[in-house]
Amino acid sequence: MLNKIIRLALTTIIFVWSIFQFFEGNIGNGISLILLASLVFLTYLRNENIIIALWYLRKNNLEKAEKSLNRIKNPEKSLIKSQAAYYYLLKGMMESQRGVGKSESLLKKALGMGLRNKSDQALAKLNLAGIALSRRRKREAQILLTEVKKLDEKKMFNEQVRMIKEQMKRI
Question: What is the reported pTM?
Answer without folding.
Answer: 0.82
